[in-house]
Amino acid sequence: MSVVAYPDPQPGRDAAPGPLIRIEGVNRTFTRDGKTVTALSDVSITVAPGEFVVLLGPSGCGKSTLLNIIAGLLPATSGLVEVGGQPVTGIPQQIGMMFQKATLLPWRTIRENIALPVQIAQGRKAARAAQARVDDLLDLVGLRGFGDQWPNELSGGMQQRAAICRMLVTNPEILLLDEPFGALDEFTREHMNMQMLDLTHRLGRTAVLVTHSIAEAVFLADRIVVMSARPGRVAGVVDVKLPRGRTPAITTSPEFQSYVEQARQVLQDGHSAEMTG
Ligand SMILES: Nc1ncnc2c1ncn2[C@@H]1O[C@H](COP(=O)(O)OP(=O)(O)O)[C@@H](O)[C@H]1O
Ligand SMILES: [Mg+2]
Fold first, then answer.
1. Where do the domains of the chain lie?
2. Topology of 19-94+175-277 in CATH?
3. What confidence score (pLDDT) does residue 18 get?
4. How far is the CA of 63 from the centre of ligand 2 (A)?
5. What distance in Å separates the CA atoms of residue 271 and residue 109, rounded to the nearest whole number?
6. What value does the mean pLDDT take over residues 140-146?
7. DSSP 274
8. Ligand 2 center–CA 20 separation, angstroms
């Protein structure tokens, strides 16, 4: 992948320190057929600029709900949700998002799919003007030459690469990743995780990624927020102090294994106090 120069997504932003994402005492309930489910109970998390945070927990513990609340796609029932120091009311413009399914439109070429967020926000002319940027992004993820193909001509991994480009085309500061490679085979997934990590760090972006895989969490995270279910709560936090520039080779190291054990323990206890490496 080549290096693309990106402008500061928020030029002129004042230097006031503080978390980029701030979640405090957030609750979310769903009511269906007269029954109320507490998806999130008193969840508090902060994410600093440039941090890679992983939400780890079993299915149904509220990971997607929390990500959707940060993205402004779902309101919290109560509690504080701030992005860039502002309360989240709609979809914050600093945010790009990616899901397990690439959801590319089959009747648009890869290039047209990637430019779609620009077209929606700024119209067709802006989308055409963004083509040089689309080419840079295709280069960045190793899809050079595939821009004029149709989604169904690409493998699952390549479709997810296109989804990465579509997420980046609006130059978001924050990447919200909901099990982005969960549907891929293990080999492709490992490779994509490594590239995603490298890309996020090189572009200086902030990421929150959801997974139920402990090893994946340790591989990717600066910090793991472990969640437990019924109701969805933060069970504990594991600071992963492995150096950046991680490759799959690190997964066999004793340090890596010790973080895996720590995270597993917090998951099991479900109520452990904060643990640090
Ligand atoms: N739109 C919804 N309506 C009703 N219940 C929901 C809805 N979305 C999520 N839930 C419930 O909230 C809980 C958390 O769901 P979710 O955030 O999808 O968990 P995860 O992503 O960790 O698997 C689950 O019990 C789920 O059934
Ligand atoms: Mg989910």
1. 19-94+175-277, 100-172
2. Rossmann fold (3.40.50)
3. 82
4. 6
5. 48
6. 94
7. P
8. 23
